[in-house]
Every structure is written in C-alpha cells, then in structure tokens.
Design a protein that fits this description.
Number of strands: 0
InterPro entries: NAD(P)H_OxRDtase_bac/plastid, NADH_UbQ/plastoQ_OxRdtase_su3, NDAH_ubi_oxred_su3_sf
Order of helices and strands: HHH
Low-confidence stretches: none
Number of helices: 3
CATH topology of the domain at 63-123: Methane Monooxygenase Hydroxylase, Chain G, domain 1
Strand content: under 5%
Shape: flat
Transmembrane segments: 14-34, 66-86, 96-116
Helix content: 55-70%
Subunit structure: NDH-1 is composed of 13 different subunits. Subunits NuoA, H, J, K, L, M, N constitute the membrane sector of the complex.
Structural class: mainly alpha
Membrane topology: Multi-pass membrane protein
CATH superfamily of the domain at 63-123: NADH:ubiquinone/plastoquinone oxidoreductase, chain 3
EC number: 7.1.1.-
Length: 145
C-alpha cells in the first residue's frame, strides 16, 4: 500500500510536468510570432516554383487504387509486427506457439491470394472475360448509298 504522501508527490510531479510542458509550448509559439517575418505583400501567399507562375490547381484526384494499396500495406505491416513479437518469444512459446504462428501465416497467405484473385493488386485495366472477334461485313450484304 502506498501512503497518501507518495500519491500526492506522484500527482504533484505530474502537475509540474504538465504546467512546464504547456508553458514551453506557449513560449515557443509566442517567440515565433514575435520573431517571425511580417511581410504582408499581395503575392505573399501565392505558390512559387522556380520562377514560373503556377497554372491550375494543386488538388489532384487520385485513383482509389492508391488508397487500397496503402490500406493493404498497413494491414500486412501490422501483421509483420505480430510476427516480430512472436519471433522474440519463440523459445518460450514452444511448439504450440509455432503452430499458432504457422496458422497465422497461412491466414495471411490466404488473404493475399484472395486479393490477387479478385484483382485488387492489378494496376492494368480489367482483363477480358472472353475474346471478342471482329466481325466482317461481306460485300454482298453491304448497303449501297
């Protein structure tokens, strides 16, 4: 059991830390405001790239494929962290841990094969389901103008 003085000392230290942290942040913001540049020209906030005036907008619409690849990366990266944690404790986990990790890897591979199967990782245009043969019009069936 901790005594009341230890609890108060612990909370007092946290309060001092919090006050000093907030004070330091305010000091840095105030210093930047006082020491920062005060240029207020007409073209101050316009973008400038190598002396060439920009044309158009900087807002580009990206394909959803970029977001999908980013989500897949995050998902599989988190699983890599789990495998790293397992690898550090492999001796303590024994064969049971090995079997669990093997099942975990198999589930990851099944997910990866599913993503490949549905074409989520394909950057090329959609594949054709069947070949379309070009039709030929015979000269006898052609209408004359």
């Amino acid at each position: 059991m901790s005594t009341t003085t230890e609890v108060v000392a612990h909370h007092w230290a946290f309060a001092v830390f919090l006050i000093v942290s907030i004070g330091l942040c305010c000091l840095m913001l105030a210093g930047a405001w006082f020491l920062g540049g005060k240029a207020r020209g007409r073209h101050t906030n316009t973008p400038f790239e190598s002396g060439i005036a920009s044309v158009g907008t900087a807002k580009l619409r990206l394909s959803a494929k970029f977001y999908l690849v980013a989500m897949f990366f995050v998902i599989f990266d988190v699983e890599a962290l789990y495998l790293y944690a397992w690898s550090t404790a492999i001796r303590e986990s024994g064969w049971v841990g090995f079997v669990e990790a093997a099942i975990f890897i198999l589930v990851l591979l099944a997910g990866l094969f599913y993503l490949v199967r549905i074409g989520a990782l394909d950057w090329a245009p959609a594949r054709r389901q069947f070949d379309v043969k070009p039709t030929t019009i015979s000269h006898a069936n052609r209408q004359k103008p």
